[in-house]
Amino acid sequence: VSQRLLPGEGELELSGFIEALPPGVAFEVEAPCAALAPLGPIERAQRVAAATKRFLESRLRAGKEAPWSVG
Questions:
Q1: What's the pLDDT tens digit per position in 31-71?
Q2: Is the confidence at residue 6, as pLDDT, over 60?
Q3: pLDDT at 68
């Protein structure tokens, strides 16, 4: 567990990484966030998934291309 934050909450420019991916490529999120350590695995996964979905949806609202699906 580290001091890393959830997708879209930190300073790392994730948009640049996503834009560099070829269309249709699968990617996964790894977010060992210390603040979530006390939670159970299902709650942690739900929070990481929700943060990731918010981040990707914010890109869509900003007019960025969507080579992924948000499910």
A1: 888 889 999 999 999 999 999 889 888 888 877 766 555 55
A2: yes
A3: 57
CA 2 to chain centre: 16
Position 26 pLDDT exceeds 70: yes
CB-CB contact of 60 with 8 (8 Å): no
Is residue 29 within 8 Å of residue 65, measured between CB atoms? no
User: What tokens were used for 5?
Assistant: 């934050």
Give the Å distances, CA to CA, from 50 to 21, 22, 46, 56, 58.
Answer: 21, 24, 6, 10, 12
Cα of 31 vs its chain's centroid, Å = 8
CA gap 34, 56 in Å, rounded = 22
Task: Look up residue 10 and give its amino acid.
Answer: G
